[in-house]
Amino acid sequence: KSADELQESGASIKRQAEKMSKLISELLTISRMDRNTLKTNFEKTDISELLTFVCDEQAEIQKKNVSLSTDIDDNITANADKFLLARLFINLISNAYQYSYENSEIFISLKQDNDKITFTVEDNGIGISNEDLPKIWERFYQADTSRSNRENGNMGLGLSMVKWIAKIHNGEVFAKSELKKGSIFTFIMPKN
Length: 192
What we know:
Elements: H1 3-34, E1 42-46, H2 47-61, E2 66-72, E3 77-81, H3 82-98, E4 104-112, E5 116-123, H4 147-151, H5 158-168, E6 172-178, E7 182-190
C-alpha cells in the first residue's frame, strides 16, 4: 500500500477506536447508574465557569461550520457533581452541533432567579418530529436513524444519561422541537 493509503487506514482505525471508547464509557456509566453504584461528588460548583469551559471546548473540537453564541450569567453557583453536570452540558451541546445545518448557529444560555438555575441550548437544525419527541429520552432510541448518525458514534444513550443526571440534581430536562426548524433543550435545577 502507498503511504497515503496507510495513513488513511490508520486514521480510520483511530476513529473507530474513539467511537468504541465512547460507547464503552457510556455503557459503563449507565450500568453504574442502574445499579446505583455511580459515585457522585456534590460540592459547591461554579456552574457559569463550568459551562463556559464546556462551550469553549465544544467550539474547538467541532468540525462543522456552526457558530456558537452564549449568554451566561456570571457567578452562578450550586451544589452539584461537576463531572456529571459537565457530561449533561457536553451531551446537549454536542447533539446541537451534530444535528445543526452547516453555516447555522447554536445559542446557549445560563440564567438564575431566586430559587432555580436554567440552562438552555437552542439550535436551528433538523429538529425532531412530534411523534419522536417523547421517545428521545429512552435508551438506544434515535429519531435520526440515518447511517451518518451511527458513523458519528452515537448509539442513543446520551439523552437518557442527561435525564438521569438532571434527576439526581433534583432538576428536570425537557425539549421543544420542530422538524427542519430546530430544537430547544432546557435543564432546570434548584439553586441550593
